[in-house]
Amino acid sequence: MTDMIDSPPPMSAEAALPDCLRVIGFPGAFLDWGVAMLRAQIEARGRAAETVWLPLAEGVEIGPDAPVRLLVSCGPDYAVPDAALPTLVLLDDVAACITRQLADTADVVAVARAMTATLATLGPVLRLPGTVLVRPDRLSAAAPQIAAALRQDGLVEPAIPAPPAMPEGALSGLAGDVCTQLLAPMLESVLSGVPQSYELPWRCLSWRAQEPAVPVMDLAGPARPLYFGPYFHFLPGAWTLELELFFSDDVGDASFAAELFTGSIVSRGRMRPGRGGLFRAQIPVRVDTPEVTTEVRIWVERGVIEGRMGLRRVVFRPR
């Protein structure tokens, strides 16, 4: 059950509020609730509040005579001139966030892309001294830290409803795989600071003209990318990109390449199976630009006349 933030008696409006706060979170209802809660707290202190989406536009005034600016971002650009400003990170439950967003769109890949944008550059921000982490199941524990970010001894009673209730029902299909294999372990890596393996479901990738990937495809044809996408943001650091691939017995001497691409090739490995079967390829990669959308590409390097292949798994393992 979601708990409420306790509401002590109102504080004096004379205490100085910060001129701006940074607010980061997954897109959706929990972030919207957090922004509304902060605005209510600020306005109850007799000061105007204004929501400004990052990156910060030119000409936006920040100072004691301007409204308190809530600098809001779903990532990956959290940059503002003062990195030490008070920051609230509002992280909803992964499954709940996916479920709420799928009420407005059927595009699971787009939902996952937006959530990886929030996570990929979040680790260093969480470890700054002025950052407060707010989770739906730990609101009471976060209340003193929120009050400290607002430079007050307690919270003014907010005239807003309780945080959004958890959606009912379990995720299934690709949405379930994205939740359990990709986003949940990414979130745990970010929160703990200890990298752990996570899997990119192959169904997030594309083939041909941006069509959803198929489990097995004919190789006959010219040199070309066979699987590509999904333009997600991946966690920074040193990883081993592990691929599991299937090849038919008539694959012959066809050669293949796998690469991580961000506008230029980050890492690349080559494969020549020579026979049919299930193969595992491991490619060392280093992600230094998590703010940039990234492709996983698997190529057939020259034209072939027969054979089939399929992609089974794409896993990022920490090195």
C-alpha Rg, in Å?
A: 23 Å
- Which blocks of ≥5 consecutive residues have pLDDT under 50? 1-14
Secondary structure class reads: alpha+beta
Q: Quick one: how many beta strands?
A: 17
Mean pLDDT: 88
Architecture overview:
With 319 residues, the chain is an alpha+beta fold. Helix content is 23%, strand content 29%. The protein is built from six helices and 17 strands. It has helices at residues 29-44, 94-102, 108-120, 122-126, 139-149, 173-192, and strands at residues 20-25, 49-53, 68-73, 87-90, 131-134, 198-199, 206-207, 211-212, 216-218, 224-227, 230-232, 237-247, 256-261, 265-271, 277-287, 294-300, 308-318. It has a five-stranded parallel sheet. Helix 2 (94-102) crosses helix 6 (173-192). The longest helix has 20 residues, at 173-192. The radius of gyration is 23 Å and the shape is elongated. The two termini are 38 Å apart. The model is unreliable at 1-14 (pLDDT under 50).
